[in-house]
Structure formats: C-alpha cells, structure tokens
Amino acid sequence: MSRKNNYAVAAILLPLTLIGASLVGTPALRSVQAEMMPMKKGGAMMGKQMKPSLGGEFVAAEHPTKGAVTIAKENGKQYVVFNDKFKSDSGPDLYVLLHRQAKPDQYKVDDYVSLGKLQQVKGSQRYMIPEDAKLADYQSVVVWCRKFNATFGYAPLMDSSMSK
Fold first, then answer.
1. What's phi and psi for 4, nearest 5 deg?
2. Which partner from 22, 117, 118, 150 sits 20 to 30 angstroms from 5, CA to CA?
3. What is the pTM of this model?
4. Do residues 54 and 78 lie in contact, with contact meaning Cβ atoms separated by under 8 Å?
5. pLDDT tens digits, residue range 135-158?
6. Is residue 42 part of a domain?
7. DSSP per-residue codes, the chain
8. What residues make up the domain containing 155?
C-alpha cells in the first residue's frame, strides 16, 4: 500500500474511531442528566416552589440502602429528591431509575426510565424526571448497578399525604 493510500485510510478511520470511542460507555437507555440545586440541612430544597407529591423509604435489596425519597414539582418540572439520610454502598455503574414495579425484579427497557448516574452514595441529591415520563406509570425509585444488574435498593412510591 502506498503512503498516499495510508493517509486516505487514516483519514477515514480516525473520525470513525473517535465517534466510536465517544459512544463507549454511553447507557443504552433514556437518561437525563441530574440538575443540582442547593440543599438545606435535612435534605430540603432551597427553591420556594418545591412541592412534594409522592414519597417513600428506601428498602435494602442486594446492598444496604437507606433514607427517603420524594417526588417534587418546581417551575413545571418534576424531580426525584433524596433526603440527607440517604446512604448506599459504592458500585461501579450505579444509576437512579424510576421503575414500573414497586419491588423491581427485572430490568427490561420498557420497565424503567433512567434519571442518570447516582451522584453520590451518601446525602441529599436530586434528579430531573424527563418530561415525557408519565409518573403514574412508575411505582418505585431504584438505585441499580447496570454493570452487574444488581438492585442496591428501592423506594416504593406512595402519596406523601397518605404516608404521614
């Protein structure tokens, strides 16, 4: 192969390699990057219009997981909010999901929507729910390890006015 042909092959392969490399590790699931907002002590949001609608306590599954989660609305958007008592083990590929089952036992693409990678294994955090996700279709919030298909913990959702 001539030097000219080597350059032509390199010119074609280099962009394809860069595109392929950028896709490696990209979750093959609907995902939204979490939006951060300052938290008050106790896990409360700083926003004045934050109104909780659903909530639940985490249940440990394959790893110790504790704390509480609420679904809150602010400025027309919905968020999953973990309180400051949230704590779970570390894992290699942890995601926060909304799942159709109250106690998830499988992870087919149509069973959940990914809210993004778990931000931290301890403390307050929040995740924006995609606008096209119909909240009534989901019964729990899950901390899930994609790499090992392991449920670290889940929080069955119920009307927060009924849980008090």
1. -65, -45
2. 22
3. 0.70
4. no
5. 999 999 999 999 999 999 999 999
6. no
7. --HHHHHHHHHHHHHHHHHHHHHTT--SS---PPPP--B-TTS-BS-TT-EEEEEEE-EESSS-EE-EEEEEEETTEEEEEE-TT-EE---SSEEEEEESSSS-----GGGEEEEEE-S-SBS-EEEEPPTT--GGG--EEEEEETTTTEEEEEEE-EETTT--
8. 51-159
